[in-house]
Amino acid sequence: MGTLICPDPPVAAAYGAVARRHGSRLTDDQIGERFRGAFRRQEELDAGPGGCPTDEARELRRWQTIVAEVFDDVADGRAVFAELWEHFALPGHWRLFDDVAEAWRSLAARGFKLGIASNFDGRLRRVCAGLTPLDRCDRLFVSSELGVRKPSPEFFTRIEKALKLSAAEILLVGDDWSNDYLAAKAAGWRVVFLDRGGQQPTGVDSIRSLAELPAKLSAP
Fold first, then answer.
1. How far is residue 160's CA from residue 179's CA, in Å, rounded to a whole number?
2. Of all helices (H) and strands (E), which one includes residue 77?
3. 116, 94 in Cβ contact below 8 A?
4. Dihedrals φ, ψ of 185, to 5°?
5. Among 87, 85, 27, 92, which Cα is nearest to 61's?
6. d(CA 161, CA 163)
7. What is d(CA 85, CA 96) in angstroms, rounded to the nearest whole number?
8. Residue 68 — pLDDT band, cuts 50, 70, 90?
9. Dihedral pair phi/psi, residue 5, rounded to 5°
10. Of the chain's two ends, which shows fewer C-beta atoms within 10 Å, N or C?
């Protein structure tokens, strides 16, 4: 999310549509603000001193906590969560960024081995299966299956072992400064920061769009 895909409709609109059927009176703006705060707090907990272990059950609890923190004005919070969990499992509720498909095809045609590495749960496989060209990706690494989340160094080590490649042979392209750029760099991977908002720090190897990526890379 943020690099290849984004929710469609946006998170606040999707949350609002579901919650209002269960009695919530929060506006989409209020929901968006609450969601960002709840999500940030979970990210801080997951990156804390205890490391970033995870599994499917942990991811489920994580999202239950976020949704419960957003909505304190619904009678049946469990029903709201269940609807939202399924909503974001459907490919039809996600879309590719406009620069993804062509960049993916161009890099694949040039012989690059492409993969996806994400802090997500098993629903990501269902989402990718319904979005071309991600449906053809056979190197899909999901934190809930790896057992650890970014920015843990172990996240990257386990991918290296699965691919049978050294850190220096892998390039990560990501839009999250801490979880992608800094974490991958610390793990010894090559990194390009996808700075869709144009706010990158000085001296960082970055691109504004995935359309710029093929020209940056020499053939493998």
1. 17
2. helix 77-87
3. no
4. -65, -40
5. 85
6. 5
7. 20
8. very high
9. -135, 160
10. C
101 CB neighbour count, 10 Å cutoff: 16
Give SS3 for 50.
coil
pLDDT digits (tens, 9 = 90+) for 131-152: 999 999 999 999 999 999 999 9
State which amino acid sits at residue 136.
Answer: R
What is the DSSP secondary structure assignment for residue 169, as one 8-state letter?
G
Q: In angstroms, rounded to a whole number, what is the distance separating the alpha carbons of residues 90 and 83?
A: 11
Q: State the DSSP code for 131.
A: S
Nearest to 100 by CA among 193, 181, 212: 212
**DSSP calls for 49-75:** TT--B--HHHHHHHHHHHHHHH-SS-S
Counted residue by residue, the chain has a size of 220
Quote the CA–CA distance of 105 and 117 in Å, as a whole number.
18
Tokens standing for residue 106:
């161009």
Distance CA 83, CA 81 (A): 5
Q: How many CB atoms lie within 10 A of CB 4?
A: 24
Dump strand ranges (E) for the chain: 5-7, 94-96, 116-118, 140-142, 171-174, 190-194, 206-207
Distance CA 203, CA 191 (A): 13
Residue in the block written with tokens 């929060």: 26
Peptide bond into 10 cis (omega under 30): no
Report how far residue 184's alpha carbon sits from residue 174's, in angstroms, rounded to the nearest whole number: 9
- State the pTM of this model: 0.94
